[in-house]
């Protein structure tokens, strides 16, 4: 078994290496000079420089808009952090509050870094596509890897630093008590993720839907046409919703899964006295950083990008390579950190070290399978999306019917994978095994974030190319990168949803330990009542967020239609981009409050008002309901989006290109799908996780407010 000093080194050294490597990749992106290519413009230097100046101006406007939104959003978050910290101090004590604040600040920092590198990279990706496809792809991946490596590295260092500080400055009765307090770290990260996902999702889709309805449908403009007043807000939204929000979301998953595993390990009598065994969950993530760096080096050799068809292969290759490399790492860590045989609880008295390795590998490979199933249902390479495109020849309605059916069908294999993982892992190692399965699925998080961030970067690159009047060949290359990015973004959402389900179940197990719940009986009326309410929560949450997008998009549409007559008429007025950015910002911040309150307050009301059994039922219902709704919404929206791109690229033939009825029908489907795949669907991950982590953090207090049977205290 590894000694304590080596364990510390294996946690800190990879995290430091990850930060150094991300700085190296940022430097590589910064080395790209935006100076144009005179040869590609028939050596027209004047036109060349005008385009370069416009590219820089547009990129700066996008950056300013994103920073303006994040500053306003983080102001709201600061108020929430202060208010919730007061509640935490009162109910749980100072250590949990400190962990909460550290988790929230780290999550905010990760989101900010992701947004900064995205807006820094997008214009350089556009510029390099002016040169060739390979150069554009490399810059986009380098920008994405900065986010992936830096986010995970910061998360590992902050959590490990918190553990060391708590051991040095606070007195705890046991290791389990300390790690229960450190669970506040996951709560802080997930709270920020809620506002980032919901606020950012409403922002980006309000701009996107408003731009499509006014520009494409009413005025027949191309996507990202500079004359559309909402086009800059749409590109800003890609960064604040898909980058900052997604980064905070996956950071929250890492923090929660690790905290749940630490709590469960500390509750195990045979693991709590070994530093290597206690830090085993954190080592899984820290060594994953090294795996990510090696993956980036191997990918460029095994999957070089030479033609459009090779882009998607290269991105999927990143996932495959990282999964294959992580497999032996997980096995060796289990061998080196755990006893040969140990007792988990009264029922699991002979758990072998390789049981834990199997639990990790089940999560790791289930994540890859879920990713590939998601690709099958959302990529235009395969039959499901092409079937939708065929139905859109007739009407938008038939395309919407097929899209909804596709989303429901796409739930089957992921749910089977999650079920097998949970059943096997729990049978081998109890809830600790489920937590390890979640960490296994997140073991390749550095690369998952890399290809996730790649998508919005490529999308923005295409928008900049269109707005700056770059040659049509450049837009064709950025569209190629963007099409592959759409598929990998859908794969990333599949990973996020799957890991959220496992994380939530692991947190539920940790909550049961802390609240002294030995079994959850569905025949208990308080459990079943909580179950019904929990199953309803995702639908209420999805309804509120979708309605919020609709309201904000209507405001955006009205503003665009107010400006268009003067923009398109004889006056040729310049679009007022700032007004549209302000509409999206104000609407998203206003509309994110009610869904956020639903998720944060529901477990507290259930636990303190109706007892720990009702709270357990609520968590169960929210988990089971959210998984399938999130998968179906995300995949339905992704399929409609790629159906539109398939038709635009001539997939149905030359008679069905842009401007045809089939294309207009596909735009309708894509517009309906926007809030499904980029707002409500991804945010349901946080409904699962945040309700569970809040219950865990307040578990002891909830138990104190319950009667002996686990019902409400007022029935004593």
UniProtKB/TrEMBL annotation:
Q: Signal peptide: which range, if any?
A: 1-18
User: Could you say which EC number(s) this protein's record lists?
Assistant: 7.1.3.1
Q: Which residues cross the membrane?
A: 74-91, 98-119, 139-166, 280-302, 314-333, 353-373, 400-425, 432-451, 495-513, 525-546
> Where is this chain's protein located in or outside the cell?
Endomembrane system
Keywords for this protein: Ion transport, Magnesium, Membrane, Signal, Translocase, Transmembrane, Transmembrane helix, Transport
What's the chief localization of this chain? membrane
Q: What class of enzyme is it?
A: translocase
For this record, an example GO cellular component is:
endomembrane system
Q: What GO molecular function terms would the record report?
A: diphosphate hydrolysis-driven proton transmembrane transporter activity; inorganic diphosphate phosphatase activity
What is the membrane topology listed in the Swiss-Prot or TrEMBL record?
Multi-pass membrane protein
Q: Does the keyword Translocase apply?
A: yes
By its UniProt entry, which InterPro entries does this protein fall under? PPase-energised_H-pump
Q: Which PANTHER family match?
A: K(+)-INSENSITIVE PYROPHOSPHATE-ENERGIZED PROTON PUMP
- Put simply, this protein is called H(+)-exporting diphosphatase
Species of origin:
Polarella glacialis
